[in-house]
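Example record used in the benchmark description.
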Amino acid sequence: MTAALGAPQADVRDRPSGSVPAHLRDSHCKSAGSIGHGVGYDYPHDDPRGRAPQEHQPPKTAGRVYYQPSTHGEEPRIEERMRAMRTEGGGE
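Model output (structure tokens):
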């Protein structure tokens, strides 16, 4: 548990995170689309795989990986699935 929380907590404390990507911002008000909020959002449930091939982290943190599966229990299978999703381009 400590390892899973340490890296993201350090990033929040020590690095600028940037803004929430526009496609993830609230799009419920009438003017939201005109300022880019929600534009380009891919709804994962519309994809037959149940996931959206889009970035969900702010640009400044894109590519940072916080979850590193261990070799214990089911985690090797989780790692295989994560690797397959990256290879397919399906996001996580």
